[in-house]
Amino acid sequence: MTVSDLDRLHSQLSRLEDMFPGYLTEIVEGSIMMSSVKPHHAETIRLVWNALREQVADEWGFTSDVAFPFHEDNEFCPDLAVIPAAEVAKNNGAYAPDLIELVVEVVSQGSIRRDYELKPRWYASRGIPNYLILDPLKGHVVTLWNPGPDGYLGRDTVPYGSADSELIIDSPLGKLRLDTGQFPVDPTVDPKAPHRS
After folding, report:
1. Which of 27, 93, 164, 168 has the maximum number of C-beta atoms within 10 A of its C-beta?
2. How far lies 18's CA from each of 44, 75, 156, 186, in Å?
3. Is the pTM of this model over 0.70?
4. Within the chain, how many helices (H) and strands (E) appear?
5. Structure confidence by residue, pLDDT tens digits, 69-120
6. Phi and psi of 179, rounded to 5°?
């Protein structure tokens, strides 16, 4: 895919997002995927962003829903990505995945397979040290670390608001802490129901 093809595709994605407000658009396995975004989704991103912003050095910045082309068939727009602040200051519409130090996805009904199956493989293959999956449908956070060519070797699941609701993430950015008790759960989903892909 040439640069002009990529620019044209970004332009098409931007128009789709303008036409369908409240939907996140990204390219997954060569298809344009749209997921509806609910208020608890944005609230979760805000809470994580604010908590991490207080803990990481000023040389790091944050992006949300900005394109990271991994391959011509996979261009992800993470809910939150920590990259160098100097790169964020460039205000680009797309960035190289190799810039990401930590990536966060918030699961929605339409993103279950992508967030749990596809993205971990791609994020790990690019050496992204930490991947957090915040799941308001199940009421837990999955933290993945130690990336390898076939995925992440480390994985923990912490229920929101469990007895020890603080999640500690050992990362190249430092030891990061998130209070899982503050994250909202989707009130329209039965937490005991199985995920639908």
Report:
1. 27
2. 23, 18, 37, 25
3. yes
4. 5, 12
5. 888 778 888 999 999 999 999 999 889 999 999 999 999 888 899 999 999 9
6. -85, 105
